[in-house]
Write a structure and sequence with these properties.
Structural class: alpha/beta
Shape: globular
CATH topology: Rossmann fold
Low-confidence stretches: 8-16
Strand order of the largest sheet: 2-1-3-4
CATH architecture: 3-Layer(aba) Sandwich
Mean pLDDT: 87
Largest sheet: 4 strands, parallel
Distance between the termini: 17 Å
CATH superfamily: 5'-nuclease
């Protein structure tokens, strides 16, 4: 499931092919709930051999729990190397954050979206309303 990306070449390479899917924190949490919509969608993507990953920002939020040791171990097997947040992502995240009124809760969402945009990935989230304003900045929701 580890589909690392690197800058603009990842975006252009994926635009002609299938897009990678990045998972937001709430989606990561929900895939552990058997029978949830997120779980069902994740299983379908995995069965279709979709490239699935998460940013280190979503990963950090996920590890804040609540999370038991078995859940964490399973998640680390599925996502052994979350996509790092790099300096280009910081610049990309700052623009919508500043334009949206600098709400502290939205910063992590802007950072998660920036990594997905750089990677040319669709973002899977349970809270699409939180990310909808970022579509105008290039985010594609799964």
């Amino acid at each position: 499931m580890d589909g690392r990306c690197s800058g603009s070449e990842a975006l252009s390479r994926r635009s002609a092919a299938r897009l990678m899917i990045h998972l937001d924190t709430n989606f990561l949490i929900q895939i552990s709930v058997s029978g949830s919509a997120a779980y069902t969608q994740f299983v379908a993507w995995a069965a279709a051999s979709e490239e699935i990953n998460a940013s280190t920002i979503a990963w950090a939020e996920f590890l804040c729990g609540p999370l038991d040791a078995a859940g964490e171990a399973l998640a680390r097997q599925i996502f052994p190397q979350p996509e790092p947040f790099v300096s280009a992502d910081a610049a990309l995240a700052a623009s919508p954050f500043n334009k949206a009124g600098r709400r502290s809760r939205s910063l992590a969402d802007c950072m998660i979206a920036a990594v997905a945009i750089r990677c040319g990935a669709k973002l899977a989230t349970v809270n699409s309303g939180d990310f909808q304003p970022l579509v105008s900045h290039g985010l594609i929701l799964a």
